[in-house]
Amino acid sequence: MDSAGVKICAIVPVYRHEKTSRHVVESLVNLNVPVILIDDGNAPEGREILVQIAKDFADVELVTHKCNRGKGAAMRSGMEAAVAAGFTHALQVDADGQHDMEAVPFFINEVREHPDDLICGYPEYDESVPKAREQGRKITNFWVAIETLSLKIPDAMCGFRIYPLASSWPVMKCLRNNRMGVDIESIVRLAWAGLQMRFFPIKVRYPEDGVSNFRMFHDNVVISMTHTMLCFGMLIRLPLILTRRLFKKK
Asked: Which of 73, 98, 159, 195 has the fewest Cβ atoms surrounding its Cβ within 10 A?
């Protein structure tokens, strides 16, 4: 724990990205960031790779799901382990190597400057980004602006965030979404809870040989259902949201 009382770990959910996860874990460990690695029901050969990674690095804890439960469930398992281990903050990072790991020190410094805030990345894409994925994000960000009655969330789907666990875990452990809608639901519910957020750019690339867990039809249906649920949730909370903003202005 540093002088500011901040103790950060990284949570890396892994499903079918066990080969690229080694580079992600090594990058974090080299930055003195302990890692909670989540084996989210990988095949036996993938599980063996993750077990070996945990053996090769002293600051890596492996949490295993016997079957695939989804990114949301993996993040909750990781956060539960982080809270139990006494960490104050958790960096969520994808295992597929898309995020620029050189940005980690900057984000950690922001946490030390603003330990009570959610520190989020918003993607800076190169030419490798699939156009459908880019357009889908724009649609999601439009709906998130409605669900939060705010234009302060520039991206709701980037899986690179540092959560203050004391305020985030009580919200995160009650999420309903286990899969691709979890990043959307979590950021909207944390906004409803009044958590302050800070956004900074992070470079994101999509390798040509990368493995995608996104199921075009099924996950788009899930995301649409997530937005429907959140829109109804916003209407229920509308008086509270407006009252909070009115008193904040005063």
From this structure: 195
Question: Per-residue confidence at 179, pLDDT binned at 50, 70, 90?
Answer: confident
Cα(146)–Cα(230) distance, rounded to whole angstroms?
9
CA 60 – CA 19 distance, rounded (Å): 16
pLDDT of residue 12: 97
**Sheet arrangement for strand 118-125:** 60-65, 35-40, 8-14, 89-92, 161-164, 118-125, 197-204
In a domain, residue 3? The reply is no
**How many domains, the chain?**
1
State the DSSP H helix or E strand holding residue 172, giving kind and residue range, or none if neither.
helix 165-172
How far, in Å, CA of 231 to CA of 142, rounded?
12
* CB-based contact 178:71 (threshold 8 Å): yes
Q: Does residue 204 lie within any of the structural domains? A: yes
For 57-79, the pLDDT digits (tens) are: 999 999 999 999 999 999 999 99
* CATH number of the domain enclosing 208: 3.90.550.10
pLDDT tens, residue by residue, 12-51 = 999 989 889 999 999 999 999 999 999 999 999 999 999 9
Q: Is 232 helix (H, G, I), strand (E, B) or coil?
A: helix
83: domain range? 8-249
The secondary structure of residue 102, as a DSSP letter, is: G
The answer to whether position 2 is within a domain reads no
60-65/161-164 β-pairing = unpaired
Please check whether residue 160 lies inside any domain of the structure: yes
